[in-house]
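Quick one:
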Amino acid sequence: MKGILHWSSRMSFMISIIIGAGVIAWLCFSGQGLSTALGLTLLAGMLMVPVVAQLSLRSAALRGLQQIVRGQIPVVLMRPMFHSLLLFLTGLWLVPMSPAMAMLLGVGAAGAALLIAVYMLRRRLPQESVCAAPVVDASRWLVDALPMALTEGMRLLQAHLLILLLGVTVLMTEVGIYRVASSLVLLIAMPISLFNIVSMPVIARLHAAGETRRLKRMLGFVSGGMTAGVIMLSLPFAVAGEDIISLLFGHEYESANSVLLVLCGGMLVNALLGAAAPVLNMTGHQSRVTRASLFALVLMAICAVPLIHVFGILGAAFSHLVSFALWHLLMWRDCIARLSYNTSIFALQRDGGQSA
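Output:
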C-alpha cells in the first residue's frame, strides 16, 4: 500500500512536468508567447495539473480504503467551495480579474483541498503502513495502468471527436446547439457517475473476499439505481425539453432537445447494463475495457461522417448512441463470459426469482 501510494505520486508528478514542458514548448514555437493572455493562462493551468493529480490520487486512496464519502469531500465539496470563495473575495477586494488570475485562484483552491485530502488520508491509513518499508512493483503497475490510461484517452477522444467533425461539416451555430445537448447529457449521466464511483471500491473488496453472491446482488441494485436516476432526470426533457432549454439557454437552442433525447438513449443503455467497466477494471480485466473502447471509437469514426452528412447534428447524436451502446454491450458480455457477473438490471429479476 505504501509503495503504490509513493509510486503513483511520483509518476503523476513526472507526467505533469512532461505535460508542462510540452505546453511551454508549444507556446514558444507557435508564436503565441509566454506573456500573452493565453500564455499566462496556460502557465497557470500547468501549475494546476500536478496539484489536481495529487488531489485525485488521495481521493481515490480514501475510496479504496472504503472511506467512500470522505474520499469525495476534498474533490466534490472543498475544491469548488474554495474556488468560489476566492473568486468572490477577489471581486470584493476589487482586484482585476483575468483568465490567468481565475486559473491561479483555481490552483489555490485545489492546493487547499489537497492539504485537506493529505490530512484525511494520513488519519485513515493503517498504523502498520507508517513504519512499513515501501514495496514497489513498477513494471507490473505500469502494465496494469496502461490499458486504463488508453481507455481514458479514447473516452476523451470520443467526447470531442464529434465536435471536431461537426466543426468542419456543419454551421458553427449547429455545433453550438450540439454542445448544449452534450453538456446537458452530463447532468443526466450524473447518477451513473455517482454509482460507479461509490461501487468501485466495494466491487474490489467483495471480489477479493470471494463474496460472489453479495457482489452479484449489489450489481443488480447498482444498475437499478442508475436506471431510475437516468429516467428521472431525462423525463422533464422528454415532456417539456424545448421549454426548459429555451429558459436556460435561449430560444435559438430549442432544437438541442431532440439531440439531447438521442444522447439520453445512450445513457439509458449504459444504466441498464450497469457498472460493467468498474467490474472489469477492479477485477484485473482492464484490457477488456480498452478493447471495447477501441471498437466503439472505430465504429463512431466510421458512422459519424455519413450520418452527419445526411442528418446533421442529429446524425452525430445517433453515431454517439450506436458506439456508446456497443461499448457497454461488449463490456457487459465480457463480465458474464469471464466473471459470471451479470451487471445489468435484469440481474435483479433473476435474484428476486431465486430468493422467492
